[in-house]
Structure formats: C-alpha cells, structure tokens
Sequence to fold (236 residues):
Amino acid sequence: MAHSGESVRPKAEQNIKDRVASHSCQGFIGIYSTLPSSGLSKTLDGLKSGLDVQVFDGERIEKCLLSATNGVLLARRYFPRSIKKWQTENPRPADVSLKAPKLLCHHTGVDLLDPHPQGIIVLGDTLNKDGKPMIEDVYWCTKGAADRALEKRFVDRGLMTSWDDIPDIIIPLVYLKWVMTIMNQMEHGGISATAIGKLRTFLLALFPYVAREMTSREKERLKDLFLIPSALGGMG
Fold:
C-alpha cells in the first residue's frame, strides 16, 4: 500500500475484535501509510462502542513526526530521502543566531517575518552631484495602506521609489543578485549613511531565510523573474 497509493481495504484487517480479545487488549491502533477505505472505516467505527480505536494514516504519522525535533531526527534516520525532500519544500530559517530575526514594518510595526516573510522593501533614490541615482533612504512595510503612506513621505522629499517583494528576495539566487545590485549602486551612484544602516538591518534579518536550498515553487518563480529584466537588473 505504501507505494500504490491505494486505500486500506477491510480484507487487510480481518477479525479485529477477535484479535484484540486473543491478546487481552482493550483497544486497536491501525497504522497505515495511506487512508483506510470507506468499508474499513465503517468496520472500525462499529468497534468503537466496545473498544478504544485509533487510526494513524500517512498524514497523521507525518504530522506527528514533523511536529517535534525528536520526530524529525527519527525521520532523518529511517526516511532520509523523504525528509530531505520535505525540508527542501518546507524551509525554515537557518539557525545562525541566538534569537529569531525580526523585520518590523516601518508604518505598522508588524513583524514582516512572522509567521513567514511578507511585504515589500522600497528604495528611495535621489540624484547625486554627478546626476546619477543615489540611494537616499529605505523602508519596508506591508502592502497597501502602509506602503501608500510611506511612499507619500518619500515622494514629498523628492525621492524616486522602486520596490521588490520580500518573498522574492529570500530566494537564494535573487538575494545574491539583489545584494550585487546594491553594491553596483554604491559604486556608481552612491548611498547615504541612513540607507546603509537600514539595508544592513534588512539583509541580516533575511539571511537565515536564504541559507538553504530553493523550493520547487521558488525555482519556478526564478524562471519568471528571469523573464522580467527589471527584477534582476544590474546583475549582468
């Protein structure tokens, strides 16, 4: 059943009541890699009036294993390929510091990394003495009202704005290219001390989410981003 994907049928669990009685037990636990069929489910439901019946299907087993550190360690030992695939597709921040990183919205104070990365980062440019774009200030926030309020402040200061989605930036290759874009900007147009301080905070907060393999969804998203020159511009 484990590899067929088929549900567990009644013939796989015959004479449950007699088997329980023969071992002087008071309950029955069914452990299945897939789901019990409707027929088997009815049989098990019928036994609940006289027995303590529990069923652990594949989803419940997985949830139990992955909800605790010891369970993950057990899965690594006995299901190394499966757990590697799961961890790739369900990345968690890398443990690179003593406390969980935070990135508070500059307008609402909401943590943009809790429960998962969200929101945008906006760069505010001005022109330096040579007429080249220079990063003057930076903010990050949730989308919508917070962004509109903060953008208005930048525009009122005469700054030109550009933005990126934070969930895109945590894609490892995009993060690297984004950092290179900032470095190119520092070399050719410049960057203010205020912007440098904010970007340092931003990059340090996001790094634990970047120090990992890319998920399948991120790999597909990366293909889309490569089709948008502005998304990874300046990185040639």
